[in-house]
Amino acid sequence: MTEDLLDDAAVRFLEACQHAELSEDARERLRRPNSSLKVSIPVRMDDGSMRTFAGYRVRYDDTRGPAKGGIRFHPSVTAAEVTTLAFWMTFKTAVMDLPFGGGKGGVSVDPKELSVAELERLSRGYIAAIADVIGPDVDVPAPDVATNEMVMGWMAHEYAKITRAHQPAVITGKPLALGGIPGRSSATSDGAFHVIATLRDRVLADVDEPTAAIQGFGNAGAQLAQRLADDGWKVVAVSDSSAAVHDPDGLDIASLRAHKDDTGALSDPPVGEEIDAEALLALEVDALIPSALEGAIHADNVGDVRARVVFEVANGPVTADADAILDDAGVEVVPDILVNAGGVTVSWMEWVANRQGEQVAEQDVSARLEARMVAESEAIATLADEQDLRLRTAAYVHALNRLGAAIDATGTVATFNGTS
Ligand code: GLU
Asked: Fewer CB within 10 Å, N side or C side of the chain?
């Protein structure tokens, strides 16, 4: 495989290649990203000093359409991480059959240390630095970890200033007032909810009131906790970077969300008991739902997992070696490239609406999102049954079949040596 990809992505890719009908040409094309840009972003801080931040934008593949993927602001952002996330986006857009390829961007920064004005200068500086490699028909960014609607609004505005043209389709996840779409901010959790609802009979058929532990109480995790609780699930534990909260009888999610909105953190929660963050992963629950960062469940803690099924709302929360151990233990893992694909699916609707100068009603967004999530979840489950595959491998094969067809449509070795 390639040094450009983290090992985990390579393991999944190579495993799926064994089960997909993939030409050597397609495999060769998907080995490396199309382009990787590293930039330095100088930012004038509020105290007058100058700080320079490292930023990245990787376009992994754009055979099926413009690259698509979020921008994250986090201290752990590196070139390798962004490349891996762009690789996963390539498969996510193919899983959902969206007319996009895969990209990703990020800035190595702790946004909690910046004032709002510094954050705006950084957001605008990042877009100025990558403006040559993005565009509505080229590569379309969106929110990711620690970036939000306001950040997308600043970025879209900066791009319009640079290009001297109003081009809202350059970025998705914008505020409604700036060309955003209703339902985008709940799209990841809504999509995850539909996947869970579709596969529930398969993975938790015998349970009436399933229990869940959710690691990560950001945009996706907190909204999904609410939807599951409203749907009759018992959400027994949630956590963020400040605390993990537990109540075996089920937590009052609304009061925890209000507390986090007020104080910015889950610590000193109004309900439940604080437990150790690692203890959350070891709870005996029906579903464990990692919704924070990559690598949360790894070789050293996977032995503690007592859940029956893992739904990956975060990107890459289970490492490849932990995956194999869960598989041996009979724990079903429903993969990120399906579970969290609701975000990019509604991004696609925003991009289409912007290009057409149309507005879309919220009920149309949610109906289309649900139909897509259900259809692709069922297609992956069927493929898993037909080929006797884990759901993760089935999702990759499903994506590879579409990616391979697109790559092969431009010709394979057989086309060019006259044997086809
Ligand atoms: N950052 C999200 C993801 O990882 C959304 C990407 C998008 O909407 O383009 O899927």
From this structure: C
Where in the chain are all domains bearing CATH 3.40.50.720?
Answer: 187-339
Q: Is 291 in the pocket of ligand 1 (CB under 6 A)?
A: no
| CB 70 less than 6 A from any atom of ligand 1 | yes
Quick check: CB of 101 below 6 Å from ligand 1?
A: no
Nearest atom within ligand 1 for CA of residue 173: 8
Instruction: Give me 234's structure tokens.
Output: 């018992």
The distance from CA 91 to its chain's CA centroid, rounded to whole angstroms, is 11
Q: Are 392 and 383 in contact (CB under 8 A)?
A: no
Domain 187-339: give its CATH superfamily: NAD(P)-binding Rossmann-like Domain (3.40.50.720)
Buried b (16+ CB within 10 A) or exposed e, 142-178: bbbbbbbbbbbbbbbbbbbeeeeeebbbbbbbbbeeb
According to CATH, where is 3.40.50.10860 located in the chain? 4-12+33-171
The predicted pLDDT at position 6 comes to 65
Distance from Cα 408 to the centre of ligand 1, integer Å: 26
Residue 340 Cβ < 6 Å to ligand 1: yes
Answer for the pair 402, 101: CB distance below 8 angstroms, yes or no.
Answer: no
88 Cβ partners below 8 Å, 6+ apart?
Answer: 9, 102, 315, 316, 336, 337
141 CA distance to ligand 1 middle (Å): 8
Tell me the pLDDT band of 412, cut-offs 50, 70 and 90.
confident
Check pocket membership of 343 for ligand 1, CB cut-off 6 A.
Answer: yes
With a 6 Å cutoff on the Cβ, whether 153 touches ligand 1 is no
Q: At what angle do helices 391-408 and 362-387 cross, to 10 degrees?
A: 100
pLDDT in tens, 147-156: 999 999 999 9
Tell me the CA–centroid distance for residue 144 and ligand 1, in Å: 6
Reference 149, options 111, 110, 176, 183; nearest CA is: 176
How many whole angstroms from 103 Cα to the centroid of ligand 1?
A: 9
- Predicted confidence at residue 1, as pLDDT, reads 35
For residue 217, the SS3 value is: coil
CATH class, 4-12+33-171 region: alpha beta
Closest-CA residue, ligand 1 atom 9, reads 69
104 catalytic per annotation:
yes
| Residue 207 in tokens | 């349970």
